[in-house]
Amino acid sequence: MVVPYCHDQLNPASYDVRLGDEIMIESAASTQFVRAPLHKFTKENPWPLGPGQFCLACTEEIFNMPRDVAGQFALKSSRGREGYSHALSAYIDPGFYGSRLTLELHNLRQLHPIPLYPGMLIGQIVFLRMDKTPMIGYEVKGHYNKNLTVMPSFHS
């Protein structure tokens, strides 16, 4: 279900996920988000997400959800205490496959930036086994399968 799988990221009831190497940020020149590479940033020299700023980011991990398993993303509690927020879309449908998760990250702090860099622990996934296998999975109805990068909304 998770590639690459790392036993050290397994918790009693969840699996830790890390930040990938690309984000999308707002631009004053356009209403569209623009891609910004994170690969050159590190823990010692992170990308500063400014106070009140919002970005789209992706996980390092790729997900391949079976038809009878859903997932729920939640920030690591330490990230929430540092001022990170994840906005709204946190559900992973059964049948979601071949894709990194796109995350909607927001800096809730008013005075200071928060750091972003590839490989940082950002959240965790709780996997939920369905009582019944859905008749139609995300692989039939979904829009974001087979995406290995940050994805903006298909509905804008």
Would you kindly provide a written description of the structure presented here, covering whatever features stand out?
With 156 residues, this protein is mainly beta. It has one domain (2-141): Deoxyuridine 5'-Triphosphate Nucleotidohydrolase, Chain A. Helix content is 6%, strand content 44%. The longest helix has 5 residues, at 77-81. The radius of gyration is 16 Å and the shape is globular.
Which characteristics define this entry?
single chain; 156 residues; Deoxyuridine 5'-Triphosphate Nucleotidohydrolase, Chain A; nine-stranded antiparallel β-sheet; two-stranded antiparallel sheet; 2 helices; 6% helix; globular
Q: What would you say about this model in short?
A:
Helix content is 6%, strand content 44%. It is mainly beta and 156 residues long.
Record the SSE blueprint.
Blueprint: E1 2-3, E2 15-27, E3 30-37, E4 47-49, E5 54-63, E6 69-75, H1 77-81, E7 84-86, E8 91-92, E9 99-107, E10 114-116, E11 121-129, H2 138-141
Antiparallel strand pairs: 1-5, 2-3, 2-5, 2-11, 4-10, 5-9, 6-8, 6-11, 7-9
Task: Please name the CATH architecture.
Answer: Distorted Sandwich
**H and E string:** EEEEEEHEEEEEH
Distance linking N and C termini: 30 Å
How many DSSP E strands? 11
**Overall shape:** globular
What characterizes the major β-sheet?
9 strands, antiparallel
Mean pLDDT over the residues: 90
